[in-house]
Amino acid sequence: MNPEIRALFPGATAKVYLDVSAVGLVPDPVREAIEDHLRVRQLVGGDKNELWATVAAARKGFAGLINADEDEVAITKNVSEGLNLFGVSLPWRSGDNVVLCPGLEHPNNIFLWYNLRTLHGIEVRTVEPRDGHLPVTSMSDAMDERTRLVTFPSISFAPGFLSDIEGLVSAAREVGALTLVDAAQSIGAVQTDVHALGIDALAVATQKSMMSLYGSGFLYIRREVADGLIPIHIARYGIDLEGAHETAFSEGELRFKAGALRFDLGNYNYLGMAAAGAAIELLNRWGMGAVETHLRSLSAQLAAALLDLGLPVVGGPPGSHLAHIVSVGQSGGGRHYTADDPAMNALHQHLMENGVQHSVRSGVLRLSVGVHNDETDIDRAVELAKRWVRTTGYSRRRA
Ligand SMILES: Cc1ncc(COP(=O)(O)O)c(C=O)c1O
Q1: pTM
Q2: Ligand 1 near 182 CB (within 6 A)
Q3: How far is CA 280 from the centre of its chain?
Protein backbone atom coordinates (compact mmCIF):
# COMPACT_ATOMS: atom_id res chain seq x y z
CA MET A 1 0.00 0.00 0.00
CA ASN A 2 1.25 3.51 -0.57
CA PRO A 3 2.56 5.86 2.14
CA GLU A 4 -0.56 8.05 1.91
CA ILE A 5 -2.57 5.18 3.31
CA ARG A 6 -0.22 4.72 6.24
CA ALA A 7 -0.43 8.48 6.87
CA LEU A 8 -4.17 8.11 7.56
CA PHE A 9 -3.33 6.11 10.70
CA PRO A 10 -1.68 8.26 13.39
CA GLY A 11 -1.26 5.10 15.49
CA ALA A 12 0.80 3.39 12.79
CA THR A 13 4.01 5.21 13.64
CA ALA A 14 3.63 5.50 17.41
CA LYS A 15 4.30 1.76 17.69
CA VAL A 16 4.81 -1.23 15.45
CA TYR A 17 1.15 -2.11 15.56
CA LEU A 18 0.73 -5.81 14.77
CA ASP A 19 -2.48 -6.38 16.69
CA VAL A 20 -5.31 -5.96 14.20
CA SER A 21 -6.67 -9.38 15.10
CA ALA A 22 -7.32 -8.05 18.63
CA VAL A 23 -8.49 -4.60 17.55
CA GLY A 24 -7.63 -2.57 14.46
CA LEU A 25 -6.48 1.04 14.26
CA VAL A 26 -9.07 3.64 13.26
CA PRO A 27 -7.97 5.83 10.32
CA ASP A 28 -8.56 9.60 10.14
CA PRO A 29 -11.58 9.48 7.76
CA VAL A 30 -13.37 7.11 10.15
CA ARG A 31 -12.64 9.36 13.13
CA GLU A 32 -13.95 12.31 11.08
CA ALA A 33 -17.19 10.46 10.28
CA ILE A 34 -17.61 9.74 13.99
CA GLU A 35 -17.03 13.39 14.86
CA ASP A 36 -19.45 14.57 12.17
CA HIS A 37 -22.10 12.25 13.53
CA LEU A 38 -21.57 13.45 17.10
CA ARG A 39 -21.63 17.10 16.03
CA VAL A 40 -25.06 16.63 14.46
CA ARG A 41 -26.30 14.78 17.54
CA GLN A 42 -24.98 17.56 19.76
CA LEU A 43 -26.29 20.51 17.76
CA VAL A 44 -29.56 19.39 16.21
CA GLY A 45 -30.38 16.00 17.68
CA GLY A 46 -30.43 14.07 14.41
CA ASP A 47 -32.95 13.60 11.64
CA LYS A 48 -34.31 10.06 11.61
CA ASN A 49 -34.35 9.83 7.83
CA GLU A 50 -30.69 10.76 7.74
CA LEU A 51 -29.89 8.24 10.45
CA TRP A 52 -31.67 5.52 8.48
CA ALA A 53 -29.75 6.59 5.39
CA THR A 54 -26.52 6.05 7.33
CA VAL A 55 -27.63 2.51 8.17
CA ALA A 56 -28.67 1.87 4.57
CA ALA A 57 -25.28 3.02 3.31
CA ALA A 58 -23.46 0.79 5.80
CA ARG A 59 -25.66 -2.18 4.93
CA LYS A 60 -24.96 -1.64 1.24
CA GLY A 61 -21.24 -1.47 2.04
CA PHE A 62 -21.35 -4.65 4.13
CA ALA A 63 -23.22 -6.49 1.39
CA GLY A 64 -20.76 -5.28 -1.25
CA LEU A 65 -17.77 -6.45 0.80
CA ILE A 66 -18.97 -10.05 0.80
CA ASN A 67 -20.87 -10.03 -2.52
CA ALA A 68 -24.26 -10.48 -0.87
CA ASP A 69 -27.56 -8.76 -1.59
CA GLU A 70 -28.57 -6.00 0.78
CA ASP A 71 -31.58 -7.92 2.09
CA GLU A 72 -29.24 -10.73 3.10
CA VAL A 73 -27.58 -8.49 5.68
CA ALA A 74 -28.94 -7.83 9.18
CA ILE A 75 -27.37 -5.16 11.37
CA THR A 76 -25.99 -6.46 14.67
CA LYS A 77 -23.80 -5.25 17.48
CA ASN A 78 -21.07 -7.90 17.34
CA VAL A 79 -20.12 -11.36 16.14
CA SER A 80 -21.74 -13.21 19.01
CA GLU A 81 -25.07 -11.48 18.47
CA GLY A 82 -25.01 -12.56 14.84
CA LEU A 83 -24.09 -16.15 15.74
CA ASN A 84 -26.82 -16.30 18.38
CA LEU A 85 -29.55 -14.67 16.27
CA PHE A 86 -28.97 -17.26 13.59
CA GLY A 87 -28.26 -20.23 15.87
CA VAL A 88 -31.35 -19.91 18.02
CA SER A 89 -33.69 -19.30 15.10
CA LEU A 90 -32.99 -22.70 13.50
CA PRO A 91 -35.80 -25.23 14.01
CA TRP A 92 -33.83 -27.53 16.31
CA ARG A 93 -35.23 -30.89 17.34
CA SER A 94 -33.85 -32.97 20.17
CA GLY A 95 -31.10 -35.25 18.83
CA ASP A 96 -30.02 -32.85 16.07
CA ASN A 97 -26.35 -32.03 16.17
CA VAL A 98 -23.95 -29.17 15.47
CA VAL A 99 -20.36 -29.86 14.42
CA LEU A 100 -17.48 -27.57 15.38
CA CYS A 101 -13.79 -27.45 16.29
CA PRO A 102 -13.67 -25.57 19.61
CA GLY A 103 -9.86 -25.58 19.70
CA LEU A 104 -9.87 -23.04 16.88
CA GLU A 105 -12.88 -21.00 17.95
CA HIS A 106 -13.30 -17.83 19.94
CA PRO A 107 -15.33 -18.77 23.06
CA ASN A 108 -18.24 -16.78 21.62
CA ASN A 109 -18.72 -19.47 19.01
CA ILE A 110 -18.74 -22.23 21.63
CA PHE A 111 -20.98 -21.10 24.50
CA LEU A 112 -24.18 -20.83 22.50
CA TRP A 113 -24.08 -24.43 21.28
CA TYR A 114 -23.95 -25.75 24.85
CA ASN A 115 -26.79 -23.41 25.69
CA LEU A 116 -28.81 -24.89 22.82
CA ARG A 117 -27.94 -28.35 24.12
CA THR A 118 -29.68 -27.39 27.37
CA LEU A 119 -32.56 -25.63 25.65
CA HIS A 120 -33.29 -28.11 22.85
CA GLY A 121 -31.39 -31.30 23.65
CA ILE A 122 -29.08 -30.96 20.68
CA GLU A 123 -25.77 -32.79 20.51
CA VAL A 124 -22.57 -30.74 20.31
CA ARG A 125 -20.07 -32.72 18.23
CA THR A 126 -16.53 -31.49 18.58
CA VAL A 127 -13.37 -32.33 16.69
CA GLU A 128 -9.71 -31.54 17.40
CA PRO A 129 -7.59 -29.20 15.25
CA ARG A 130 -4.82 -30.73 13.14
CA ASP A 131 -1.55 -28.79 13.59
CA GLY A 132 -3.51 -25.57 13.93
CA HIS A 133 -5.62 -26.33 10.85
CA LEU A 134 -9.35 -26.89 10.70
CA PRO A 135 -9.58 -30.61 9.89
CA VAL A 136 -12.08 -30.93 7.05
CA THR A 137 -11.94 -34.72 7.08
CA SER A 138 -12.66 -35.10 10.81
CA MET A 139 -15.35 -32.42 10.60
CA SER A 140 -16.88 -34.30 7.70
CA ASP A 141 -16.60 -37.64 9.54
CA ALA A 142 -18.50 -36.12 12.49
CA MET A 143 -21.45 -35.13 10.27
CA ASP A 144 -24.49 -37.31 9.67
CA GLU A 145 -28.14 -36.95 8.68
CA ARG A 146 -28.93 -35.34 12.06
CA THR A 147 -26.36 -32.58 11.53
CA ARG A 148 -28.31 -29.34 11.18
CA LEU A 149 -25.34 -27.01 11.32
CA VAL A 150 -21.58 -26.91 10.79
CA THR A 151 -19.89 -23.85 12.23
CA PHE A 152 -16.30 -22.67 11.82
CA PRO A 153 -14.17 -19.53 11.58
CA SER A 154 -13.09 -18.15 8.19
CA ILE A 155 -9.76 -17.38 9.86
CA SER A 156 -9.25 -19.01 13.23
CA PHE A 157 -9.05 -17.01 16.42
CA ALA A 158 -5.62 -18.59 16.95
CA PRO A 159 -3.30 -19.55 15.29
CA GLY A 160 -5.12 -17.51 12.62
CA PHE A 161 -5.03 -19.81 9.57
CA LEU A 162 -7.49 -19.53 6.71
CA SER A 163 -10.08 -22.30 6.76
CA ASP A 164 -10.92 -24.47 3.78
CA ILE A 165 -14.38 -22.94 3.42
CA GLU A 166 -15.18 -24.68 0.12
CA GLY A 167 -14.32 -28.08 1.59
CA LEU A 168 -16.45 -27.53 4.68
CA VAL A 169 -19.43 -26.12 2.79
CA SER A 170 -19.33 -29.04 0.39
CA ALA A 171 -19.13 -31.61 3.24
CA ALA A 172 -22.02 -29.90 5.07
CA ARG A 173 -24.14 -29.86 1.93
CA GLU A 174 -23.61 -33.56 1.43
CA VAL A 175 -25.50 -34.25 4.66
CA GLY A 176 -27.99 -31.41 4.15
CA ALA A 177 -26.51 -29.25 6.94
CA LEU A 178 -26.23 -25.46 6.96
CA THR A 179 -22.96 -23.56 7.47
CA LEU A 180 -22.38 -20.67 9.85
CA VAL A 181 -19.06 -18.82 9.60
CA ASP A 182 -17.44 -16.64 12.27
CA ALA A 183 -15.79 -14.10 9.99
CA ALA A 184 -14.56 -11.74 12.74
CA GLN A 185 -10.99 -12.03 11.53
CA SER A 186 -11.36 -12.10 7.78
CA ILE A 187 -13.69 -9.33 6.61
CA GLY A 188 -11.64 -6.28 5.69
CA ALA A 189 -8.54 -8.45 5.41
CA VAL A 190 -9.33 -11.02 2.71
CA GLN A 191 -11.75 -11.02 -0.19
CA THR A 192 -14.93 -12.97 0.46
CA ASP A 193 -17.72 -13.97 -1.89
CA VAL A 194 -20.43 -15.64 0.16
CA HIS A 195 -22.49 -16.55 -2.90
CA ALA A 196 -19.59 -18.19 -4.71
CA LEU A 197 -18.57 -20.02 -1.51
CA GLY A 198 -22.13 -21.16 -0.80
CA ILE A 199 -22.01 -20.04 2.84
CA ASP A 200 -25.43 -19.98 4.55
CA ALA A 201 -24.68 -17.50 7.32
CA LEU A 202 -21.73 -15.39 8.42
CA ALA A 203 -21.22 -13.08 11.38
CA VAL A 204 -18.86 -10.09 11.54
CA ALA A 205 -17.95 -7.20 13.87
CA THR A 206 -16.34 -3.93 12.77
CA GLN A 207 -13.46 -3.33 15.19
CA LYS A 208 -10.70 -5.42 13.62
CA SER A 209 -9.75 -5.26 9.92
CA MET A 210 -12.94 -3.26 9.36
CA MET A 211 -11.12 -0.33 11.04
CA SER A 212 -14.12 1.00 12.91
CA LEU A 213 -15.91 0.64 16.24
CA TYR A 214 -16.66 -2.01 18.82
CA GLY A 215 -20.36 -2.66 19.28
CA SER A 216 -21.36 -2.85 15.62
CA GLY A 217 -21.42 -5.64 13.11
CA PHE A 218 -23.56 -7.55 10.68
CA LEU A 219 -25.03 -10.96 10.01
CA TYR A 220 -25.28 -12.36 6.50
CA ILE A 221 -27.92 -15.01 5.87
CA ARG A 222 -28.46 -16.49 2.43
CA ARG A 223 -31.82 -15.22 1.21
CA GLU A 224 -33.47 -18.64 0.76
CA VAL A 225 -32.39 -19.72 4.23
CA ALA A 226 -33.41 -16.48 5.95
CA ASP A 227 -36.86 -16.46 4.36
CA GLY A 228 -37.64 -19.73 6.13
CA LEU A 229 -36.54 -18.59 9.61
CA ILE A 230 -38.65 -17.18 12.43
CA PRO A 231 -36.55 -14.78 14.50
CA ILE A 232 -36.71 -15.32 18.26
CA HIS A 233 -36.27 -11.60 18.91
CA ILE A 234 -38.47 -9.31 16.91
CA ALA A 235 -38.91 -5.53 16.75
CA ARG A 236 -40.09 -2.83 14.43
CA TYR A 237 -37.23 -2.79 11.91
CA GLY A 238 -37.66 -6.49 11.27
CA ILE A 239 -41.37 -6.22 10.51
CA ASP A 240 -42.76 -5.46 7.08
CA LEU A 241 -45.38 -2.78 7.74
CA GLU A 242 -45.81 -2.05 4.03
CA GLY A 243 -44.74 1.54 4.54
CA ALA A 244 -47.09 2.25 7.47
CA HIS A 245 -45.83 3.60 10.79
CA GLU A 246 -45.21 0.91 13.40
CA THR A 247 -47.98 2.31 15.59
CA ALA A 248 -50.43 1.33 12.82
CA PHE A 249 -49.97 -2.31 13.76
CA SER A 250 -52.91 -3.79 15.61
CA GLU A 251 -53.61 -7.45 16.19
CA GLY A 252 -52.85 -9.58 13.22
CA GLU A 253 -50.29 -11.83 11.71
CA LEU A 254 -46.74 -10.54 11.84
CA ARG A 255 -45.19 -10.24 8.42
CA PHE A 256 -41.40 -10.37 8.61
CA LYS A 257 -39.22 -8.37 6.30
CA ALA A 258 -37.59 -10.23 3.43
CA GLY A 259 -34.47 -12.26 4.01
CA ALA A 260 -32.10 -11.31 6.80
CA LEU A 261 -33.76 -7.93 7.31
CA ARG A 262 -36.18 -9.65 9.68
CA PHE A 263 -33.32 -9.96 12.16
CA ASP A 264 -32.96 -6.18 12.53
CA LEU A 265 -34.39 -5.08 15.87
CA GLY A 266 -34.93 -1.58 17.25
CA ASN A 267 -32.77 1.50 16.94
CA TYR A 268 -29.35 0.95 15.46
CA ASN A 269 -25.90 1.88 16.61
CA TYR A 270 -25.98 4.84 14.21
CA LEU A 271 -22.54 6.01 15.29
CA GLY A 272 -21.11 2.58 14.54
CA MET A 273 -22.82 2.61 11.16
CA ALA A 274 -21.38 6.05 10.32
CA ALA A 275 -17.92 4.75 11.21
CA ALA A 276 -18.31 1.48 9.31
CA GLY A 277 -19.65 3.29 6.24
CA ALA A 278 -16.57 5.51 6.15
CA ALA A 279 -14.25 2.52 6.64
CA ILE A 280 -15.89 0.59 3.81
CA GLU A 281 -15.53 3.58 1.51
CA LEU A 282 -11.80 3.44 2.15
CA LEU A 283 -11.60 -0.33 1.61
CA ASN A 284 -13.47 0.06 -1.67
CA ARG A 285 -11.22 2.90 -2.76
CA TRP A 286 -8.08 0.86 -2.04
CA GLY A 287 -9.62 -2.32 -3.44
CA MET A 288 -9.99 -5.46 -1.32
CA GLY A 289 -7.76 -7.36 -3.77
CA ALA A 290 -4.90 -4.91 -3.19
CA VAL A 291 -5.50 -4.92 0.58
CA GLU A 292 -5.37 -8.71 0.75
CA THR A 293 -2.23 -8.90 -1.39
CA HIS A 294 -0.50 -6.35 0.83
CA LEU A 295 -1.43 -8.11 4.07
CA ARG A 296 -0.50 -11.57 2.82
CA SER A 297 2.81 -10.35 1.49
CA LEU A 298 3.75 -8.72 4.83
CA SER A 299 2.67 -11.73 6.87
CA ALA A 300 4.61 -14.09 4.58
CA GLN A 301 7.73 -11.95 5.03
CA LEU A 302 7.26 -11.96 8.78
CA ALA A 303 6.67 -15.71 9.02
CA ALA A 304 9.67 -16.53 6.82
CA ALA A 305 12.00 -14.21 8.72
CA LEU A 306 10.93 -15.49 12.16
CA LEU A 307 11.38 -19.07 10.98
CA ASP A 308 14.88 -18.20 9.77
CA LEU A 309 15.65 -17.11 13.32
CA GLY A 310 14.71 -20.59 14.54
CA LEU A 311 11.45 -19.47 16.11
CA PRO A 312 8.51 -21.92 16.19
CA VAL A 313 6.20 -20.27 13.65
CA VAL A 314 2.95 -22.22 13.72
CA GLY A 315 2.26 -23.83 10.33
CA GLY A 316 5.90 -23.57 9.21
CA PRO A 317 6.84 -21.78 5.98
CA PRO A 318 4.32 -19.33 4.55
CA GLY A 319 1.69 -21.04 2.43
CA SER A 320 -1.95 -20.83 1.45
CA HIS A 321 -2.98 -21.04 5.13
CA LEU A 322 -1.52 -17.63 5.87
CA ALA A 323 -3.71 -14.51 5.72
CA HIS A 324 -2.71 -11.58 7.93
CA ILE A 325 -1.90 -13.45 11.16
CA VAL A 326 1.44 -15.00 12.09
CA SER A 327 1.55 -17.08 15.27
CA VAL A 328 4.60 -18.17 17.18
CA GLY A 329 4.76 -20.85 19.88
CA GLN A 330 2.97 -24.07 20.67
CA SER A 331 -0.51 -23.88 19.17
CA GLY A 332 -3.31 -24.80 21.52
CA GLY A 333 -1.34 -24.48 24.74
CA GLY A 334 -1.49 -21.83 27.41
CA ARG A 335 -4.22 -19.66 28.75
CA HIS A 336 -5.70 -16.65 27.03
CA TYR A 337 -2.95 -14.14 27.82
CA THR A 338 0.09 -16.34 28.37
CA ALA A 339 1.94 -19.11 26.59
CA ASP A 340 2.92 -22.33 28.38
CA ASP A 341 6.50 -21.94 27.22
CA PRO A 342 8.37 -19.43 29.46
CA ALA A 343 10.62 -18.59 26.51
CA MET A 344 7.60 -17.49 24.48
CA ASN A 345 6.36 -15.39 27.36
CA ALA A 346 9.78 -13.76 27.51
CA LEU A 347 9.76 -13.08 23.76
CA HIS A 348 6.27 -11.59 24.10
CA GLN A 349 7.44 -9.31 26.88
CA HIS A 350 10.55 -8.28 24.95
CA LEU A 351 8.53 -7.35 21.85
CA MET A 352 5.89 -5.47 23.85
CA GLU A 353 8.49 -3.55 25.85
CA ASN A 354 10.11 -2.49 22.61
CA GLY A 355 6.91 -1.22 21.05
CA VAL A 356 5.73 -4.21 18.99
CA GLN A 357 2.07 -4.38 19.91
CA HIS A 358 0.60 -7.88 19.56
CA SER A 359 -1.37 -10.45 21.60
CA VAL A 360 -1.05 -13.88 23.14
CA ARG A 361 -4.05 -16.08 22.37
CA SER A 362 -4.49 -19.82 22.90
CA GLY A 363 -0.86 -20.08 23.95
CA VAL A 364 0.71 -18.42 20.89
CA LEU A 365 2.12 -15.00 20.16
CA ARG A 366 -0.33 -13.66 17.60
CA LEU A 367 1.08 -10.96 15.33
CA SER A 368 -1.38 -9.55 12.82
CA VAL A 369 -0.86 -6.99 10.09
CA GLY A 370 -3.18 -4.28 8.83
CA VAL A 371 -3.23 -1.87 5.88
CA HIS A 372 -1.38 0.65 8.04
CA ASN A 373 1.71 -1.61 8.19
CA ASP A 374 4.64 -1.58 5.82
CA GLU A 375 7.96 -3.39 5.49
CA THR A 376 9.67 -1.16 8.04
CA ASP A 377 7.32 -2.61 10.67
CA ILE A 378 8.20 -6.16 9.69
CA ASP A 379 11.92 -5.34 9.69
CA ARG A 380 11.67 -3.77 13.14
CA ALA A 381 9.78 -6.72 14.63
CA VAL A 382 12.23 -9.20 13.08
CA GLU A 383 15.23 -7.18 14.25
CA LEU A 384 13.92 -7.20 17.82
CA ALA A 385 13.20 -10.92 17.66
CA LYS A 386 16.71 -11.50 16.33
CA ARG A 387 18.21 -9.53 19.20
CA TRP A 388 16.18 -11.60 21.66
CA VAL A 389 17.24 -14.90 20.06
CA ARG A 390 20.88 -13.80 20.22
CA THR A 391 20.83 -12.68 23.82
CA THR A 392 18.89 -15.67 25.10
CA GLY A 393 20.48 -18.26 22.82
CA TYR A 394 16.97 -19.54 22.16
CA SER A 395 17.64 -21.36 18.89
CA ARG A 396 20.84 -22.94 20.26
CA ARG A 397 18.88 -24.28 23.21
CA ARG A 398 16.32 -25.81 20.88
CA ALA A 399 19.05 -27.41 18.74
C1 LIG B 1 -12.81 -15.29 15.75
C2 LIG B 1 -13.48 -14.30 16.68
N3 LIG B 1 -14.79 -14.38 16.91
C4 LIG B 1 -15.42 -13.52 17.73
C5 LIG B 1 -14.72 -12.50 18.35
C6 LIG B 1 -15.42 -11.55 19.23
O7 LIG B 1 -16.79 -11.72 19.28
P8 LIG B 1 -17.74 -10.49 19.66
O9 LIG B 1 -17.71 -9.54 18.49
O10 LIG B 1 -19.03 -11.09 19.83
O11 LIG B 1 -17.19 -9.87 20.89
C12 LIG B 1 -13.34 -12.39 18.14
C13 LIG B 1 -12.49 -11.39 18.76
O14 LIG B 1 -12.68 -10.63 19.61
C15 LIG B 1 -12.72 -13.32 17.30
O16 LIG B 1 -11.41 -13.26 17.09
Answers
A1: 0.96
A2: yes
A3: 15
